Amino acid sequence: MKRFASLFLSGASLVAIAFFSPMAARNAAGQEWAAAKLEKSPRHREWVKVRHGRRVVDTFVVYPQASDKRPVVLVVHEIFGLTDWAQLVADEIAAQGYIAVEPDLLSGMGPHGGRTTSFTQEQAIEAVSKLNPEQITADLNAAADYALKLPSSNGKLFVAGFCWGGGQSFRYATNRHGLKAAFVFYGTPPSAGAIRRISAPVYGFYGGDDERVTATVPETKKEMNAAGKKYEAVIYKGAGHGFMRAGEAPDANPANAAARKQAWVRFKVLLEEND
Prior knowledge:
By secondary structure, this protein is of the alpha/beta class. About 40% of the residues lie in helices and about 20% in strands. An eight-stranded mixed sheet has the order 1-2-4-3-5-6-7-8, sandwiched between helices.
């Protein structure tokens, strides 16, 4: 599997609402292409209600077409909430042979107790940016525990997050023992003190033109190395923030499209190597 290494460029919390422009919000909302692609999927998809304490978390689950028990990938959505693209990426992970489980972290927080679909895009950004970290961890744990108990699960757990969710996947690795690996797609790191609690390898995916996030990579490397933790980061030249979504869109620019393709191959290889 390491033969793919030559394909990649070497290199290597919560995200404030101010970092996202109205244009970025509109672009994320216009995901008819993602919904159309998802509808063509042959895989079984379902929504389940996962309960912990007094909370009920609407959770999207996609099953792979497999003849054996499979690992679980806990997917953490972007700051835009559990959008059409967020569902599509879960389906694409399932296509690789993994049970994808993705909780809507805005469950019960919208008008009339709704989830992401009950917010405008701008409202979703604001609501996600204000989520309580302890609630986020509890929601993620509940979704992960649900999936690990499925008859088709083999008991192995990964976490992968994108944008805001990338930072949350990094933070989740500080709180959840027993993870096989954490995948951080253009997310910011936890504090140095929290890093010491990480027990799983962490793999980062960053855009070369996403300096706000990518600038954190060198210090994160130092902190992870000092703590004796495995951290491998790749920076994709010319790619911007959100390149996994933007690079898949019909109007993707060449840099984002190339970064998305290379990152997806790397992601699949790393899943297999850590399985």
